[in-house]
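WARN retry 2 of 3 for item q-0093 after timeout on previous attempt; input resubmitted unchanged.
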Amino acid sequence: MNSIECRICETPISAFISFGKMPIANGFLLPEHYQNEYFFELSTAFCPNCGMVQIIDQPTPEMMFHEDYAFFSGTSRYMSMHFERFAKSVMQNRLRDKDDPFVVELGSNDGIMLQHFKEAGIRHLGIEPSLNVADAARAKGINTVSEFFNADLAQKIVEEHGCADVVLAANVMCHIPTLPDIAKGMSTLLGPNGLLIFEDPYLGDVIEKTSYDQIYDEHVFVFAAGSVNEAFSRHGFELVHVEPQTTHGGSMRYTLAKKGVMKPSAETLALFKREEQLGLQNPTTFETFRENCERSRDELMALLNDLRAQGKTVAGYGATSKSTTVINYCGITPEHIRYISDTTPTKQNKFTPGVHIPVEPYETFTNNYPDYALLFAWNHKDEIMAKESAFTKSGGKWITYIPKVEIFE
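OK item q-0093 returned
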């Protein structure tokens, strides 16, 4: 496998697993685009120096985030509620004593979180490079710029609006390969007492659940508290608080301040110790993870091949970015699952990246239930189970692969 330098500390690193040839995770497409479809090798490495887990090769940002970006945060009721709680927590705990506070969000998508600051009359700015979702935010009156964040943009924002009191990011920071440049930009954008608060899928959960589908082109990093602290401490920040989140199958919210401004919380120190116990700084942990990924792949394909031999109908549920890793790594084809049901209009009547399984409107699923539904959107399991009781009552069964391959009703 390829060897390359760590994106954080430039230490030589090499892959501990390759998921093989992989397309753009959110690159749902039409048949006329098959011949020009882009592929790259999705391989993942662990840096023995700073502890950062990262993919080795990543498509350019413009290939992943553009005017046809297929993910709108607001389509999930659960995520809408989550971001409302996130925003209110920041207002209550971090902005309450501020005079005319200013909040910036990186990767603000369709404004699902910033809308709460707007409604509270708080100065805000969203930074969202994907034009179609940025336009959706602007249509709601949310101040948004369609650019990729860097030090130059940080300086422009400060000149126009002043320093930010809080910079937020949700499921975004792990997308950015130039994390040191982001940290430099934060030094400019944040005031002396400003805070950077972001949340992303958590490495500890990925390891414990074998949730390898958290690894795809957009997720260039899989963070842990230790690696976050290492990455940002090089640029004058320190991790001062952590809050576990249930979103995306297990995430962590990190709060960073400029060094010396705040003492790290007891929760932060406890998580550092727990990560030592989990072996998140130990290369052998990732060898075991690779073996668990291979076992999960083999068990899922054995199950799907058995159901196919029995003549059972199987449909996918949720055409997610994560499903692209699973489908292509495992070798799932339209012969294994006939289609994937999804409620996102921009994905419907297209085909999945790489393997080209049809993506059908949700009504296709409800109008003629399959025998089995393969739950790609497993991180929304509770929400989906409440919604789909009729499928289960009709005799339909679910297949999941996180944390293990199993059938349930």
